[in-house]
Design a protein that fits this description.
alpha+beta; 5-stranded antiparallel sheet; 4-stranded antiparallel sheet
Length: 158
């Protein structure tokens, strides 16, 4: 299970990328629009645009392996979670408020860094009919924050 600190962190204004690969080991990734914890905090549900995640979804159907990276622009704090049981799930429109909240929190992170609001809103634009959810159980967690501990496993985080 993800510890309380990391659970709170991944649900803030972080940039989220979700990656997968097929048998050919060629990586694919997609920008996510937010996430939430499900199944009592045991699993992570990541919201993505299906139209942009076709290759990731195909890889997940093949092997279930994913890596998700959560990075906070203002501090470069970065967490990577890996899992091997990823599945796609239908998007529930009650989670639209989570996506909107995530976009607003991300804006608060990047506006002071000089990123324009229109750029963020364009990157985060979506149609509810195009949303899908990738759900997985984290089996490994790593600090990817730049510095001497980058790449180190986080004990007790997953």
């Amino acid at each position: 299970m993800i510890d309380h600190d990391n659970a709170a962190f991944i649900q803030t204004g972080v940039a989220i990328s979700l990656a997968s690969c097929g048998a050919d080991r060629v990586p694919n990734n997609v920008r996510a629009l937010g996430c939430k914890l499900v199944d009592g905090g045991q699993r992570v549900a990541i919201f993505v645009r299906a139209s942009q995640a076709r290759a990731v979804v195909a890889n997940i159907a093949e092997n279930g392996r994913v890596a998700a990276v959560f990075s906070l622009p203002s501090s470069n704090r970065t967490l990577q979670l890996k899992g091997s049981d990823a599945q796609t799930s239908a998007f529930d429109t009650t989670d639209l408020t989570l996506i909107e909240r995530h976009t607003e929190a991300f804006l608060c992170e990047v506006l002071p860094e000089g990123v324009s609001e229109i750029a963020v809103r364009t990157i985060h634009a979506y149609s509810p009919a195009d949303l899908t959810v990738i759900v997985f159980t984290p089996t490994a967690a790593f600090s990817q924050t730049p510095g001497p501990r980058a790449g180190q496993a986080i004990v007790g985080a997953a």
